[in-house]
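Explain the record.
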Amino acid sequence: MRRSAPAEKGESPAKRLAAFIAKFDPAIGTLVRSARVSLRRRLPTAIELVYDNYNALVIGFGSTERASDAIVSLAVYAKGVNLYFIQGAQLSDPHHVLKGSGNQGRFIRIEDAAALETSAIATLLSAAVEQAHPPLPMTGHGYTVIKSASARQRPRRPAGGRS
């Protein structure tokens, strides 16, 4: 059984990520692309880690190429997009926007990319970056790494949705 799909020879991470996003309904694809732009602007030195898993497309942002060093991630499902705060349980949430009750992570359902610009989410993102270990580099530019692409996946569009 094959665990991951190989990259086409010479295919860039950006091109592979675009192909992963293209599997989703156009509205979800537009939301993911806009959310990535917002997060890249806010976290310009972060390394973007991409996992096209069985359940979801996950795009993590962290200080190294290790998943355990991710600060936040976008989890893309057939029916929506969540912004996960990996250490969200440790964050102060005065606006009560974080969902989840686990020991570590919390998430926010993203309905549109403008939500990432609200003061509540901006404050949470700043706090998450501040507590990150190792911290994000102060200078330089981040890049994208395709960590895995699962050969078997749940449908990327809702049942009965458009193709």
